Backbone:
């Protein structure tokens, strides 16, 4: 930056005059964060698409990322840091906390500022006014419902934030233990922290899907830009220049060597001061490309006419999955009706509002990485092998995570900043831009599914066959997991006597597909639920009755032959929706009699989904300790990515230990400070880590009981260094400071480990892949404008069997958020390389797209889970799209086979059907 | 002194700067910054937001003048004649409130995107564009100002200072229909701006209708406009011939065939909904 371009700008910031000396064209969001240290204003896109940077300028809500600093001269600016005074939350912040309106918290500052601008003008706003005010802020976690409610409720007398009493934490609506920081802007996300002297890293990425490149004399660029310190290339990677989820498949290079396999692949990294790394062009680098014809789409991958995407896989097939139960041909031959179809879906972006970011710092022979992640321990091993060092030399310090949904199970910035910091022996930071995040990170697998189902005259399923091809993109990532998980679940939660399922994960020159909330089962659910609807129709049975008739029950054997002994709430879920189903269907049909163009319809979807890894050991260890000063700390390795693991683990441990939840401090995910609690994936944390948390609490309690020589029923009180255990024999005092402390300063500790019991699958996919399954069903009423092809979802009722509700607010939050993502999958989300590399062309649901949602919770206790609980994270999303697509069919008679059901696709299907089959 | 950023405080200073150098214009920033994500900004930027006199709406007997820095929120809050209802509706569909608070109507015009929501409404209102340089003031009909996809008739030394709209008749009514894939923050698949004027027997005396996102530049449907004169609103019919000058393309938001198929419905709704 030339000095002459800088000048001073003076404005009022949160009530006090401030002057900054800066380039006036800089985005004000950048000046706030980097110059003024106010990190509460978040940056999610730098393009006015996400709203995370919303601030007030002269009382009006504005995007700080679209505001030139020079424009602030003389203005009055309020950021999230200016809301609360002296640590007192405003009624709006308070209401957000109480309602559970902040999940990951990355959109929360923007939401608060947008809402505050409305409340300043309209003290008691209507819901429509709230929707309008929040229209410019995206949230990917909450489904918006609780945010809307929080804004409306904030104008009423606030209910005080209270923590549950001893023994009552589980099942309570305890507020998030990390909620306060998320509401004040104090929470530290991945882009919010880095050593002052950090160098910046910017990756150079391929604009081509498949190409050979040559990077000659990058030193030339270094001569041109004095602030450019290093141009990293593949040669600089000290260890293995490859990473990947599976220990035996490290197929994705940190920096590509000579060839690239997808648009967005990193080939080099510029390290230096920020201005320099952002200024360097391809010409500066003498970078030349020789593009080749790319393998695009599943058909091209299967045809294998071009050179294979990866040379070791001549037919482009990465992996296959297979499950076979009894005799599928025989089953079909004995069927009364058989229906079949083909379904395809598009690539889908996770759309967390926090782009990937972090910094790495080498300390002697060790390296520390501060980063957003869902899986710190896997990151640790990955970075170690890329650097060629022992994993004990790597410390992963997770930031607060601004949404994950599976996308932050893969590494992103980690190996780049690790290599740079290692080679240069200097701290290096990187923040992905939104286009870079979209182009370079994983997507939900696009699929092509061919499926067939048969039933008897009385409506019992007889046979089911499923063939699924999954486009796994250029690198393996979680492709094998998807290929394994889908065949197990592909029938839906129904008892099928004969079934066969095979899947393939195929390489293409497209974005790597990875883990995304449901690992391929949301795509499969579209097929199995459409088949259920069509079979019911064929035998003139109500679609919901058909589902109830075939639902899995206790005592049934699953597709893999696993006997379901406990916690199978599928029929309860379906039954609980029945009265609404009948009423909604009838009211839609009545409506349609009077409406020629706008048609309403109601559809349903069901889900079952195994909690935990498939047929693999996936243990979690949780630790709890009491210091000599009486501080109780939960060492929680179960990453909270917004879903609320921190809170759930505390609730469970508090009741197991027998002290109030409010007494807990928490340490999250740091590989030096917490034990390995596995990945935040596969809906496993509440079930697996929750059980470990319970065991940790029980073990610590047992130690105290033993030490104090009191009975099992004793109550425990900790006040400073005095721990009192009280039972019918009286009070027994333990002076904590008298006990010799462990290395971390704790004097009493408890540790729990739980590994859910599973068995391997045999060559027919038979076995017990999961220790437990979550079940659920949703119904959706939609409204289709048949003249334009647009669809609006009016209302959804969602019934889910969660075993035991640990925290109703958080379970509802998971369901609302899952529904929002399911709605996006059904109606609007479609990632197209090069075209939708921003959040105005990649459309996710806004606050105005959400239906009203009613949540019905079923508790069919799971004996293995903590207090009977199992997972819900992924289950919530899976039935939504099938219910919406079923609703469109009920409304219009049209069958949607390719998702998303965008207006042009719906319209074209209506045209083809010629308006014949509407339900009136 | 060569500076890369200049924020003049009055129109004259701005025009002088333009006469001396070539600048990239900045107003609300809602198009400027999204086009520069992750890039170090080095170009010479003339920030217009300091020219307070350009943020105003003035009415005279014959015309309404909308200053170049008038924001979408200003339009929404202004007490404009009923013929502006389409423009007013559009002001609530452009981005979120944050964009509406910062984005200017002239910025939307000058960006000249085929999907600019202002343009069909302004075409229907028969808006003219005022351009000023130190030497002269030019007034161009909007149709002559927008030359193509992101191409405008502004010369390097000129500033678009405002829009001039003939004062509509008391009876004139406006409307806007926008088709998109989600509720908010949506770029139009297609949109229609309409201004209808009636005679004493509620027959159409004059119809202006313009369609956006269905060609490189929004287009008036002149044939339909001519045929509509003398008809009642509810009798209006759209024939394929009326839409012949539209040239939609396939893009991420919809196919060309879809656009053509739904546009007549959208036009009908816009006209009948005034």
Residues:
């Amino acid at each position: 930056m030339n000095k002459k371009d800088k000048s001073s700008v003076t404005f009022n910031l949160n009530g006090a005059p401030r002057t900054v000396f800066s380039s006036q064209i800089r985005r004000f969001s950048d000046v706030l964060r980097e110059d003024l240290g106010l990190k509460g204003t978040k940056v999610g896109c730098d393009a006015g698409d996400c709203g995370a940077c919303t601030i007030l300028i002269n009382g009006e809500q504005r995007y700080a990322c679209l505001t030139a600093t020079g424009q602030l001269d003389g203005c009055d600016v309020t950021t999230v840091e200016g809301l609360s005074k002296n640590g007192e939350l405003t009624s709006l912040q308070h209401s957000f906390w109480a309602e559970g309106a902040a999940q990951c918290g990355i959109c929360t500052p923007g939401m608060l500022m947008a809402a505050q601008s409305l409340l300043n003008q309209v003290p008691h706003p209507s819901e429509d006014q709230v929707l309008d005010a929040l229209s410019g802020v995206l949230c990917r976690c909450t489904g918006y419902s609780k945010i809307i409610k929080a804004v409306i409720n904030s104008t009423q007398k606030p209910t005080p934030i209270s923590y549950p009493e001893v023994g009552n934490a589980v099942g309570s609506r305890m507020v998030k233990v990390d909620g306060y920081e998320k509401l004040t802007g104090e929470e530290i996300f991945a882009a919010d922290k880095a050593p002052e002297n950090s160098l910046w890293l910017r990756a150079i990425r391929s604009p081509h899907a498949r190409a050979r490149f040559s990077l000659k004399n990058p030193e030339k660029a270094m001569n041109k830009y004095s602030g450019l310190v290093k141009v990293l290339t593949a040669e600089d990677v000290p260890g293995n220049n490859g990473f990947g989820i599976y220990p035996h498949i490290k197929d994705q290079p940190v920096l590509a060597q000579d060839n690239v396999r997808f648009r967005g692949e990193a080939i080099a990294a510029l390290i230096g001061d920020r201005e320099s790394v952002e200024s360097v062009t391809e010409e500066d680098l003498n970078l030349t490309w020789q593009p080749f014809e790319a393998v695009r789409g599943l058909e091209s991958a299967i045809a294998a006419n071009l050179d294979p995407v990866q040379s070791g896989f001549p037919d482009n097939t990465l992996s296959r999955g297979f499950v076979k139960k009894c005799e599928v041909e025989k089953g079909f031959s004995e069927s009364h009706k058989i229906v079949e179809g083909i379904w395809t879906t598009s690539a889908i972006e996770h759309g967390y509002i926090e782009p990937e970011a972090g910094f790495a710092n080498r300390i002697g022979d060790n390296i520390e990485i501060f980063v957003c992640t869902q899986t710190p321990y896997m990151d640790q091993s990955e970075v170690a092998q890329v650097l060629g060092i022992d994993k004990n030399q790597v410390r992963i310090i997770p930031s607060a995570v601004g949404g994950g949904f599976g996308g932050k199970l893969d590494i992103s910035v980690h190996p780049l900043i690790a290599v740079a910091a290692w080679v240069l022996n200097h701290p290096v930071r990187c923040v992905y831009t939104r286009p870079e995040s979209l182009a370079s990170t994983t997507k939900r697998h696009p699929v092509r599914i061919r499926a067939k189902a048969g039933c008897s005259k009385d409506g019992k399923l007889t046979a089911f066959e499923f063939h699924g091809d999954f486009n796994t993109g250029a690198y393996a990532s979680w492709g094998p997991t998807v290929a394994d998980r889908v065949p197990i679940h592909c029938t839906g939660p129904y008892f099928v006597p004969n079934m066969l399922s095979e899947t393939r994960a195929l390489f293409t020159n497209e974005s790597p597909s990875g883990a995304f909330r449901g690992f391929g089962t949301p795509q499969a659910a579209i097929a199995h639920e459409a088949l259920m609807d069509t079979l019911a129709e064929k035998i003139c049975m109500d679609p919901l009755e058909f589902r109830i008739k075939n639902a899995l029950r206790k005592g049934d054997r699953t597709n893999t032959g696993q006997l379901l002994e406990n916690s199978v709430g599928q029929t309860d879920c379906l039954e609980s929706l029945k009265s609404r189903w009948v009423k909604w269907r009838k009211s839609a049909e009545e409506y349609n009699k009077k409406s020629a163009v706008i048609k309403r319809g109601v559809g349903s979807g069901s889900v079952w989904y195994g909690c935990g890894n498939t047929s693999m050991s996936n243990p979690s260890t949780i630790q709890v300790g009491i210091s000599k000063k009486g501080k109780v700390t939960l060492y929680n390795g179960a990453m909270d990515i917004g879903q609320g693991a921190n809170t759930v683990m505390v609730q469970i441990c508090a009741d197991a230990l027998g002290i109030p939840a409010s007494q807990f401090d928490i340490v999250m995910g740091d590989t030096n400070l917490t034990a390995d609690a596995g990945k935040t994936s596969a809906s496993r944390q509440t079930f697996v880590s929750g059980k470990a948390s319970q065991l940790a609490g029980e073990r610590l309690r047992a130690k105290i009981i033993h030490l104090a020589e009191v009975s099992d029923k004793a109550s425990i009180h900790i006040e400073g260094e005095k721990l009192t255990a009280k039972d019918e024999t009286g009070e027994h005092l333990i002076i904590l400071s008298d006990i010799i402390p462990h290395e971390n300063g704790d004097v009493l500790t408890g540790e729990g480990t739980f590994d859910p019991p599973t068995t391997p699958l045999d060559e027919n996919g038979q076995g017990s892949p999961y220790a437990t399954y979550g079940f659920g069903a949703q119904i959706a009423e939609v409204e289709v404008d048949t003249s334009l092809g647009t669809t609006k979802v009016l209302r959804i009722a969602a019934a889910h069997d969660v075993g035991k509700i640990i925290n109703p607010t958080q379970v509802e939050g998971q369901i609302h958020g899952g529904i929002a993502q399911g709605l996006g999958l059904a109606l609007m989300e479609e990632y197209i390389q090069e075209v939708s590399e921003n959040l105005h062309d990649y459309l996710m649901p806004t606050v105005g797209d959400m239906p009203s949602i009613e949540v019905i919770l079923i508790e069919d206790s799971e004996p293995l889970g903590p207090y009977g609980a199992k997972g819900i994270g992924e289950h919530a999303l899976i039935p939504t799209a099938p219910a919406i697509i079923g609703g469109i069919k009920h409304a219009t008679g049209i069958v949607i086979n390719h998702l998303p059901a965008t207006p042009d696709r719906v319209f074209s299907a209506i045209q083809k059907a010629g308006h014949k089959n509407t339900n009136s | 002194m060569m500076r890369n950023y200049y924020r003049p405080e009055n129109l004259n200073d701005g025009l002088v700067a333009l006469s001396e150098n070539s600048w990239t214009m900045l107003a609300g920033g809602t198009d400027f910054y999204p086009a520069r994500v992750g890039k170090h900004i080095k170009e010479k930027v003339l920030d217009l937001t300091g020219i307070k006199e350009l943020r105003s709406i003035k009415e005279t007997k014959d015309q309404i003048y909308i200053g170049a820095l008038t924001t979408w929120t200003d339009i929404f809050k202004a007490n404009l004649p009923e013929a502006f209802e389409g423009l007013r509706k559009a002001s609530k569909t452009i981005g979120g409130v944050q964009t509406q608070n910062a984005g200017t109507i002239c910025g939307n015009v000058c960006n000249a995107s085929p999907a600019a929501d202002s343009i069909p409404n302004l075409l229907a209102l028969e808006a003219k564009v005022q351009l000023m340089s130190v030497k002269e003031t030019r007034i161009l009909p909007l149709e002559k100002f927008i030359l193509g996809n992101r191409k405008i008739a502004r010369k390097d030394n000129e500033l678009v200072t405002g829009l001039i709209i003939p004062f509509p008749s008391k009876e004139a009514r406006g409307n806007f229909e926008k088709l998109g894939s989600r509720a908010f923050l949506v770029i139009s698949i297609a949109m229609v701006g309409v201004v209808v004027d009636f005679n004493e027997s509620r027959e159409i005396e004059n119809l202006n209708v313009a369609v956006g996102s269905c060609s490189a530049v929004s287009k008036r449907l002149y044939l339909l406009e001519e045929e509509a004169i003398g008809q009642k609103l509810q009798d209006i019919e759209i024939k394929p011939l009326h839409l012949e000058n539209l040239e939609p393309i396939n893009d991420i938001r919809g196919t060309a065939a879809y656009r053509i198929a739904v546009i007549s419905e959208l036009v009908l709704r816009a006209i009948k909904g005034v």
